[in-house]
Amino acid sequence: MFRVLLIAFCLTIPTVLYASTGLPPDFCHYGSIEQHQAPPPQALPKVEDNSNANEEKFQLRLSGGNGGFSGFAIQAQDPSGAPVGRFQIIDEHNSKTMACKNLDDTILHAETQEEGPLKRVDFSWIPA
Predict the structure, then answer these.
(1) pLDDT tens across 77-95, in order?
(2) Which class is 2-126 in CATH?
């Protein structure tokens, strides 16, 4: 039951697409990222849970379909908007973490995608 609830929670994590120039400098200050969204994409990336039932962390994949995506930021939040858990990088070439309130509480795209748009990014999320 907990796994189903957490997967549903992960699918509702605010995911924002950004240009490869990076996040706005005030990203962590506001707690809400909706005001920094890029123009709506043609299709939203999807998040897949590739975890085993016995693991204490969730293996996730963000994929963007045929067109890919040039940037992203993901932060799991509690109902009050505070970041929860931490992210673990699997693909160092395409992603990095940052600390808004806690260590590794936000995962985002690497500064540049020299090979063009990202097709997918794998990462882990560890509940707090």
Answers:
(1) 888 888 889 999 998 888 8
(2) mainly beta
